[in-house]
Amino acid sequence: MNSIAQSGFSRRGFLKASAAVGGGLLVSFVLPRGLLDAQAAGEAFNPNAYVRIDRSGKVFLTIQPVEMGQGTYTSMPALIAEELEVGLDQVVIEHAPADDKRYANPVLGFQVTGGSTSVPGNWKPLREAGAAARILLVSAAAERWKVSPDSCSVEKGVVMHAASGRKASYGELVDDAAKQKLPATIPLKAPADFKLIGTPARRTDSPDKVNGKAVFGIDVHPEGMKVAAIQLCPVAGGTFASVDESPAMAVKGVRKVLHSDTAVAVVADHMGAARKGLALLQVKWNEGANAKLTSAKLLEDIEVASRQEGVQVRNEGDVAAAMAKAKQKVEVVYQVPFLAHACLEPVNCTVHVRKDGCDLWLGIQVPARAKALAAQLTGLPEDKVQVHNHLIGGGFGRRLEVDFVGESVKLARQVDYPLKVVWSREEDTRHSTLRPFHYNHLSAALDEQGRPTAWTHKVTGGSILARWAPAAFVNGIDRDAIRDAAGPYAFPNIHVRYVRHEPPAGIVPAFWRGVGHTQNGFMVEGLLDELAVLAKIDPFEYRYPLLEKHPRAVAVLKALREKSGWDSPLPAGHGRGLALTYCFSTYAAQVAEVSVSDSGEVTVQRVTTVVDCGIAINPDSVVAQIQGGTIFGLTAALFGNITFKDGRAEQGNFDTYRLLRINEAPRIETHRLDSSEPPGGLGEVSTVTIAPAVVNAVHAATGKRLRTLPIDPQQLRKA
Known about the structure:
By secondary structure, the chain is α+β, with helices and mostly antiparallel strands. The protein folds into 3 domains: 206 residues, Aldehyde oxidase/xanthine dehydrogenase, molybdopterin binding domain (Aldehyde Oxidoreductase, domain 4, 2-Layer Sandwich); 148 residues, Aldehyde oxidase/xanthine dehydrogenase, molybdopterin binding domain (Aldehyde Oxidoreductase, domain 4, 2-Layer Sandwich), CATH 3.30.365.10; 325 residues, 2-Layer Sandwich (Aldehyde Oxidoreductase, domain 4). It has 20 helices and 28 strands. Strands 11-12-9-19-16-17-18 form a 7-stranded mixed sheet. The longest helix has 28 residues.
C-alpha cells in the first residue's frame, strides 16, 4: 500500500469532494506540479482535474492530455477505473478547457500534450482520485446500510454487502457520497491486485475512428462556415506583396480573396472552389534575404559553426589526459537533416471572430497557447476566446506550434462568419516547422583492447527551447539538443559541448517525435558500433561493461540478443544492426535485419524490439507505440529530408516527401520485459533506435559506414 500522505501533500491541499452541478459526485483534485506551484504562491485550492459521476453511474474524467493516436483516451480512463472499480467502458473523457495554469501537464508545468509524459505524469494522481471516489461511495453505502465500510466490496460500479445481500450502484449513491468526508489517507492497490492495468484493452477511440463518427479539427462545420485554401510565401521568411484577385473571383463558389503579411487565401463555399481559385491567383511576393538560399549553403554554414568551441555541457574525468594516452583515437562527423512532420491531418484551424468574442475549433497540443495568441491578435481579453479542442490527426510536435493558428486568426478577422483555413499537404510540408539540422563532431579514445577510455561529443544545431521555452534555455544550453549525447553509457571520461547555430529566419527548428534523442541517439549508437567493429568485439558484448549502472538496460540487451536470433547466420547481402536507448524513463533496444541490393536499395526485413517501460497500462498500446515509432523513424531514416533551393523547400506531397509504404514495411516483433517500476514514456522510444539499428545493419551487410541521413542508395551501389 501507499498513500497520498506519504507524498507529502495535505489531504485538503490535494483533492476535494462535492456535489456535482445537477446532482452526483464531483472529485476535484490538483495534479502534483500545479499543487507545488500553488503552494509556493500561497494560493488556495485550485483543482486542475476532475472526476464526475452522474446519477446513471457514468464516470466523466476531465484531464489535460489530448488524444493524438498515442492511446491517451484508453490509458487515462484505465488509471481511474482501476481504483474506482468500474469498467473501462464506464469512463468518458472530456476535453479540458484551454487554461495554462489550471490544466498544467504534471511533468512539464503548463498545458501541453507531448514529451511522452501523459502516463508517467498521471500515473499516481489519477489512481488516487479514483480511489478517493470509491472510498466515498463505499462510505455512503455503508452509512445507508448501517454497516462497516470494510464489510462492503465493489465490482463494476456496484457496492455490495455480502452478509445481507444488499447492493447499490454508484449512480444510486452519488448524492450521498458527495456528503461524505475524505479520509486522511488514500490507500492504493498493490500491482498484484490490478484488474485493468497490465491487461490488454481495446482502444476506446478506435470504433468512432473506424465508423467515421470521430471528430478531428478538420471535420468541424459551425453554422455559416466558409472554407479557405491558403498559400504562404514560397520563400522561407518572405512576405506578401500584391495579388490579382480576378481569376479566382471568376470561379463559381468563391467569395473572397484575403491576405495577411505572409499569406494569401481564397474563401469559398467549399474546398474544391477554394483550391481551384487559389491555383488561378497571380501573387507577387517579397522574397527577401533567403531568395537564393540553398541546402549547400546551409551545410557550409553549419560546418563552419561547428568549429566553434561552444558551451560546456558535461566534463567528467580528464578527457585530455585519456586522449593523450590513447592507443588509438577515432574522430567522426555525423549529421541529420531537417525533417517535417507529415501528419496525416494537415494543419487547419476554424475561427469565428466577433466584436465580443472569438471561437477556435482545431486539434492542438497546446490549447492555452492558441488561446493566448488569438487574444493577442484580436485584442480581446483571453476569457473572451474559446478553444474547442478536438482529436488530433497526428501531432509529433507539429501541433506544439501555433503559427497556423495565427495565420487563421489574421484571415478570419477580415470576415464576419466562421472561417475554416486548411493547409494543403504541399503547404503543410513546405512551411512546416522542422526538426533541426544537426552537424556533430564525436571522438573516442581507445585502450589496447579497443575499449573506450574517453568520449567527446560536440552538438551543433538550432535551439528549439530558446524560442519555444526561453526559461528552459539556461547558460546557452538547449537541454533537448544535447539529449542522449554520450547515451546511457559510463565512459570513464566524458566531454560534451553545445554550439548553437540557427538557420536563416523563416526556417524554424521545432519539436519532432523524439527530437534530441533521435539526433544524438543515431550518432552515439553509430559510433559505438564503429568502435565495436574496430575492436572486433560483438556489439552486444561491447556495450555490457559500459552499462553497469543500468542493469535494466543489460537485461533488455540480453533478451534482445535471444529474441532477434542475433547469432544465427544470414545470407550474403544481409546484415543485422543493434541500437539501444534510455529515454523518457524507458529502456529499449532494437535489432534491424536488412538486405541491400546491388543497386544500393535497402530493404528492412525484420525489426525486433525489447522494451522495459516499467508497468504497462495497456500491453497492446506498448506494441502499437513501438510499431508506430518504428515506422515513423524508419520513414525518416530511408527518405526523410527537407532541402532548399532558391529559398524554397523542395519537398511537397508524399511523392517527394515519402512515407514508408505498406509493401515496404518490415516484420516488427515487440517483446516487453515485466517490471514493477513506474511507467515510462513510449511514443518516441522506437523512433530513436530504428535509424542507428538500420545503419549499423547496413554496415554489417556491406561494410560501408553511413554517417549521414537519409540513407543514400548511391553510396551503397556496387560497382
